[in-house]
Amino acid sequence: MNAGDRLPPLEIPITRTLIVAGAIASRDYQDVHHDPELARQKGSPDIFMNILTTNGLVGRYITDHFGPRAVLRRVAIRLGAPNHPGDTMVLTGTVEQVDGDLVTVRVVGANGIGKHVTGTVTVRIPA
Amino acid sequence: MNGEPEVHEEFEARLKAYEGRPAAATGVGRDPVNEPMIRHWCEAMGDTNPAYTGPDAIAPPTMLQAWTMAGLSRRPERTAAYDELLGLLDESGHDAVVATDCEQEYLRPLRPGDDITFDSVIESVSGRKTTKLGTGYFVTTRTDIKASGELAGTHRFRILKYAPARRPKASNAPKERRPRPVVNRDNAGFWEGVARHELLIQRCTGCGTLRFPWLPGCNGCGSLEWDTVEASGEGTVYSYVVMHHPPFPAFTASDHAAAAAGPFAVGLIELAEGVRIISNVVGVPYDKVRVGMPVRLCFRQYDDELVLPVFQEVTR
């Protein structure tokens, strides 16, 4: 594995169920993640995915690719375009750095309106 | 708050004073790390990693924050300082919140049975930022999470507390309309003038004093007799306020210089004739209105029934 290597993309349909299930599994009861009417009152066209779910999906993307022995060391993400129901997010990754058994991957999750998430993940891959 | 920079600076200084203060003190995870919550998480994420099941299961590292969440319960660990900071932002109209950044480092895996404790500090409060969502402030906290007393991970979290720039109108709700004027015998002549696109000032026929708004009698001589003078339409901003919160979409939706439902300027306009009128300064962003700004009268049709006299900046 070398810097510049690309990970195969992972397509995630953004369903209402995923947004609500992710919010509840992360114990995030902010109304904008489950109540469309209250989300609209706060200026959003619909409910949107919470950051903890995005974080979980980014982690899953990396460990799905590197396998169960890979150990996440660091996940740093920034959110941009929100994930609303009916959209699809495509996660892509590029290896940024390989340092011994530590691999840093640059991750982008793009949806229909822009980049939902950009970030880097550092993962240890035991030899 | 208005659009004056020094007011923002003073508010920012109040917010900055919270940097370095604790946000959560000796928080205790509501549940120890446990298999059911791990399973619910994996189901939601579609994560089938075998590392998260079986006798040697670890929790997905990205669940770090989930173990600290209060859910629907109270947050006794939340400090008065953090409550105050969020309260200041809420009260100033920055009542909406969105998470923007999450940085987590995982020092050791969490396993079912681990008891979670955490401490959090307010790391930074940004200056005033204008974003697509609205204007607001970024608040960054850093949380140390311990498992059975041992540091297991750190979690830096950034939220944007903002005043929504636009509140889309609910599709099935009627469009918000401006309040209707109260028309009575004493002011009917004024509104009839407005309907003809004339701004009429009352003039006492006893002493010649001009008066506005319309009143039955003269404040100077007490005479009840009057006629009218049509305003030339020239004026200057004598004073103004910027209305930030609560939002009144009806006051901004038809003004393209204002973000719909965003702040808007209410001006006290001194007319060339010497009387003053409260109106809106339109066509110019709310934070560009200034005392002394030359303005000119125009009439705007706000809906089928309502025409109002408003003022536009005169550009020279």
From TrEMBL, chain A:
Every MaoC-like domain range: 10-98
Q: Which CDD domains match?
A: SAV4209
Domain of life assignment? Bacteria
Family recorded in the similarity comment = Belongs to the enoyl-CoA hydratase/isomerase family.
Q: What is this protein called?
A: Acyl dehydratase
Q: Which organism is it from?
A: Streptomyces coeruleorubidus
From TrEMBL, chain B:
> What residues does the ChsH2 rubredoxin-like zinc ribbon domain cover?
191-226
Residue span, ChsH2 C-terminal OB-fold domain:
229-300
Q: Which residues form the FAS1-like dehydratase domain?
A: 28-150
Report the coiled-coil segments. none
Concerning InterPro entries, the annotation shows: ChsH2_C (IPR002878), ChsH2_Znr (IPR022002), FAS1-like_DH_region (IPR039569), HotDog_dom_sf (IPR029069), NA-bd_OB-fold (IPR012340), Thioester_dehydratase-like (IPR052513)
Please report the name of this protein according to its UniProt entry.
Answer: DNA-binding protein
